[in-house]
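Saturday, quiet lab. Running sequence design on the structure tokens for the scaffold JK sent over.
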């Protein structure tokens, strides 16, 4: 089969590439190949009753399928160049913000019209953080919620399905460069060809992307891996922050090692969930706009970024080894009371159930000090006490810590200002490129390359 453009991956980058191509160059024949299911068939079997933990499905419904890993996230679109990726280094700060705002307009017009935009600008919390050796990063945040995010994706798919060819449950095995463009290999010896290729495989495709780059001699550089825990506390403890800011990106530099520890993916009145990345079970968090789905807890990640150079460069392999250790000890995700961690003892259900925080994820009580390296765990403990100064109660004994949370990043692919690799017409975008680390940046990168292709069509 021959197409003008093939898009690999139906996550945010792939969806917005397809959306923009359908709008700006409707004459082009475009296909999207996706390893996972259509949106309506993405169902995680964990129900907390019959299935309490990850059973390692052939394709993880949380990580793969239309919408990518972001489909069941809490739907936060951070409009900022301060975090979420380095897209602005390729296309410029002004252009990056313009594209993120454009994506926000599309989301709002496709079901997100009643959601709220939050902002840290002029916040009194910035001063409070500075007074306590913390840094609050600037951003405008559109919170869709897991439920409204799903509605937005439904409406986008409904608009695209008759204009773009979608091939679900069709993982691409290899990419070949031909005289006339590119050939993608899939299934049992099947293939398709195209003039232009957009690769948008997300974080879950980082290993595959690494293999493609190695085989095709596409230059890359080592990226980082983020390691840490997900914290769950009574929602009231952080309500003064979340009511006004919703998502607060707070950074702390530890006194002991001067490592940067940051909050990530804050979910007021949300739930903690497990997810499967390349067969490894890690932890994440979701939240909802629907009041009936809200819980009494707030959760957020505390992450430490680790960079490697010589002689070791496999940051993802390092993160995977720690996650596998957690899986080996706990059969999946481990949960521990902060008080038990401080006392050097493993948690048990008796102490957890007697506490003030009832867990929203059925995890295995355990000891995170047997999993996370001491330097990382020391930094997390320091950060919890630092947060306790601006949100008293964060360092309570009953605060729950789930581990491990790992954010894998693809090795950063060497790209031009067009987000094109060393093969003309092959664009690598989204989190799989190592350039973006967020829904907003990945979506903006999709629009950006689609506009380039449309202009040259």
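Result came back. Writing it out in full:
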């Amino acid at each position: 089969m021959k197409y003008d453009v093939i898009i690999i991956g139906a996550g945010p980058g792939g969806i917005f590439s397809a959306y923009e191509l359908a709008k700006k160059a409707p004459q082009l024949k475009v296909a999207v190949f996706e390893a996972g299911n259509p949106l309506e068939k993405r169902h995680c079997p964990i129900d907390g009753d019959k299935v309490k933990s990850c059973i390692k499905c052939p394709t993880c419904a949380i990580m793969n399928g239309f919408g990518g890993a972001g489909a069941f996230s809490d739907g936060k679109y951070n409009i900022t160049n301060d975090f979420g990726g380095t897209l602005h280094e390729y296309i410029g700060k002004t252009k990056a913000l313009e594209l993120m705002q454009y994506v926000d307009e599309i989301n709002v017009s496709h079901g997100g019209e009643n959601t709220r935009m939050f902002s840290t600008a002029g916040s009194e919390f910035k001063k409070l953080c500075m007074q306590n050796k913390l840094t609050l990063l600037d951003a405008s945040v559109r919170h869709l919620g897991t439920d409204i995010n799903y509605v937005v994706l439904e409406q986008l798919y409904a608009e695209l399905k008759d204009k773009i060819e979608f091939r679900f449950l069709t993982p691409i095995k290899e990419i070949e460069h031909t005289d006339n463009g590119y050939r993608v290999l899939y299934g049992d010896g099947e293939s398709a060809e195209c003039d232009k290729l957009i690769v948008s495989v997300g974080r879950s495709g980082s290993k595959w992307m690494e293999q493609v780059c190695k085989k095709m001699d596409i230059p890359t550089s080592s990226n980082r891996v983020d390691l840490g825990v997900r914290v769950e506390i009574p929602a009231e403890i952080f309500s003064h922050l979340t009511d006004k800011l919703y998502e607060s990106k707070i950074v702390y530099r530890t006194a002991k090692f001067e490592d940067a520890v940051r909050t990530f993916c804050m979910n007021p009145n949300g739930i903690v969930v497990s997810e499967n990345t390349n067969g490894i079970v890690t932890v994440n968090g979701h939240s909802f706009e629907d009041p009936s789905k809200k819980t009494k807890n707030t959760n957020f990640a505390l992450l430490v970024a680790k960079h490697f150079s010589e002689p070791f460069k496999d940051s993802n392999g390092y993160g995977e080894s720690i996650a596998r250790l957690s899986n080996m000890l706990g059969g999946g995700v481990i949960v521990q009371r902060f008080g038990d961690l401080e006392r050097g003892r493993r948690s048990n259900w008796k102490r957890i159930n007697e506490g003030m925080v009832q867990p929203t994820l059925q995890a295995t009580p355990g000891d995170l000090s047997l999993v996370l390296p001491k330097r990382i765990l020391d930094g997390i403990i320091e950060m919890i006490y630092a947060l306790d100064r601006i949100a008293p109660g964060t360092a309570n004994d009953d605060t729950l810590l789930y581990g491990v949370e790992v954010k894998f990043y693809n090795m950063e692919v060497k790209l031009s200002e067009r987000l094109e690799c060393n093969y003309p017409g092959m664009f690598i975008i989204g989190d799989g490129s190592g350039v973006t680390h967020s829904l907003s940046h990945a979506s903006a990168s999709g629009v950006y390359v689609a506009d380039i292709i449309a202009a040259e069509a």
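Notes for JK: Residues 93-112 form the longest helix (20 residues). The first strand starts at residue 2 and ends at 8. Ask whether to fix the surface positions before the next round.
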